[in-house]
Amino acid sequence: MKRNAQEAKNTYLTKQALQRMPYYLQYLKGAKAEGKSHVSAAAIAEELELSDVLVRKDIAAVSSKQGRPKAGFEVDTLIEDIELYMGYHHTKEAVLVGAGSLGRALLGNREFGAYGFQIVAAFDVRRSVIRKTISGVEVLSLAKLRDYCLRRNIQIGIITVPAEAAQDVADRMVDGGIRAIWNFALVKLKVPEGVLVQNEDLASSLAMLSQHLRLGNEMDSSSGWME
User: Fold this and answer.
1) 180-183 β-sheet, strand order
2) Long-range contacts at 3-9 (CB < 8 A, ≥ 24 apart)
3) φ and ψ at 126, to 5 degrees?
């Protein structure tokens, strides 16, 4: 029987530890698919290239169950504990502003549901897309954002608009009671204390990839390597 959110351990995780949790889940679900009932911290650490100590510390922060000396941790219990801590058992509604190419891609992502995340409405300023339905989600006028969020107590907003429009959108979201913003616009947003902004810097990531390839090609050329 699944436990409720009140039973999740009230332990603070660092940002780095939170970022490791989805990888733990992926490994554990793979182990379960292979028919394994228990896994050791050492096995998890080896697969994810982490230290045993770090894995044990992360697991202890989200689960009260101790691993058995030889058998390790119970897979089903650890999966449930991590999902419970991360809030995956309770759907969190979100809104998206900017129904362009990136916004449409996010609206069409079917994996969000596995993480307790559902985009319930999209907003835009273009008449050509307002009142249309994209991947089952209706696009509304940006003017309705604040009232919509207040009425439904929406607390998560996603920004996929051009940089010059992002701050205005963020202000509207904050006015509507949103406390967490997933920002895809290439701009630093100014928000009140208590509002979290998670930036996804696609341009920076692409620049890093290009730089890596450029340096690699230069090294190949300098060493005289050819196909």
Assistant:
1) 133-134, 137-141, 117-124, 92-97, 156-159, 180-183, 196-199
2) 3/80, 3/84, 4/89, 5/84, 5/87, 5/89, 5/90, 7/84, 8/62, 8/81, 8/84, 8/85, 9/61, 9/62, 9/63, 9/64, 9/81, 9/85
3) -85, 125
Specify which residues 117 forms β-bridges with.
Answer: 92
Alpha helices in 87-225 (DSSP H): 101-107, 145-152, 163-175, 202-222
Q: What is the structure's pLDDT at 162?
A: 94
Exposure string (b/e) for 194-210, b if CB count within 10 Å is 16 or more?
ebeeebeeeeeeeeeee
Tokens read off for 176: 């509507």
Report helix, strand and coil shares of the chain as percent, to nearest 5: 50, 15, 35
10 Å Cβ neighbour count for 52?
A: 14
User: Which tens digit of pLDDT belongs to each residue from 164-215?
Assistant: 999 999 999 999 999 999 999 999 999 999 999 999 887 777 888 888 787 7
Q: What are phi and psi of 220, to 5 degrees?
A: -65, -40
Helix (H, G, I), strand (E, B) or coil at 22: helix
Find the Cα–Cα–Cα–Cα dihedral 110, 111, 114, 115, rounded to 10°. -120
pLDDT digits (tens, 9 = 90+) for 43-55: 999 999 999 999 9
Per-residue buried b or exposed e for 120-147, using 16+ beta carbons within 10 Å of the residue's own CB: ebbbbeeeebbeeebeebebbebeebbe
**Token pair recorded at residue 21:** 């949790």
Question: Which residue type, as a one-letter code, is found at position 185?
Answer: A
